[in-house]
Amino acid sequence: MNWVSPKHFVPNLTIGAPVIESLRKHTKAYLDCHLMVTNPSDYVEAFGKAGASGFTFHIEVARDNWKELIQNIKAKGMRPGVSLKPGTPVEDVFPLVEAETPVELVLVMTVEPGFGGQKFMPEMMDKVRTLRKKYQSLDIEVDGGLGPSTIDAAASAGANCIVAGSSVFGAPDPGQVISALRKSVEASQIKS
Ligand SMILES: O=C(CO)[C@@H](O)[C@H](O)COP(=O)(O)O
Questions:
Q1: Confidence of residue 14 (pLDDT cuts 50, 70, 90)
Q2: C-alpha distances in angstroms, 111 versus 17, 49, 119, 121?
Q3: Interface predicted TM-score (ipTM)
Q4: Record's superkingdom (predicted)?
Q5: Is 187 domain-assigned?
Q6: Is any ligand 1 atom within 6 A of the Cβ of residue 163?
Q7: Is residue 64 part of a domain?
Q8: Residue 5 lies inside a defined structural domain of this protein
Q9: Residue 12 domain-assigned?
């Protein structure tokens, strides 16, 4: 794909706080917000007010301010999470999980963030296994290329929160795919 990253031109997001606010009027569901942005601090207040449940930022853009960011996310009533890109070592998020005010979720990207429909990277399961061994009760999320053919690898490595796009929205029966994903995670949790 020949795609060049644009510079920021406007401070708004296509699926930003107004979308969360609109959804919140119709559901009590957990709204898990993963902000793939360079300036997550700028969005905490708006997402909190809009009714987001979780706010996940990227470690790659928060190396200098993650402590304040986590505290701010919690102060605004959301669960803080941190995400890491495929090239980022898992050790980089340990301090955030072990902090006095810790993140409550780690999102291991299983594709390069940016586009749906990419191939799952099984080698990222080493990160998931490492996190699960070290932190038994941590929420570990995976995102990218998850579907019926890849869920068992992720679930058996220890992932318990699954983000799935193409496999669900491209299925003739999305509910059936969601059930299959859920079943695999539940079965792995019983075994461990
Ligand atoms: O936002 C991203 C990647 O940037 C992911 O959430 C993907 O969009 C998930 O989609 P599939 O890989 O399941 O199609």
A1: confident
A2: 25, 30, 7, 6
A3: 0.95
A4: Eukaryota
A5: yes
A6: yes
A7: yes
A8: no
A9: no
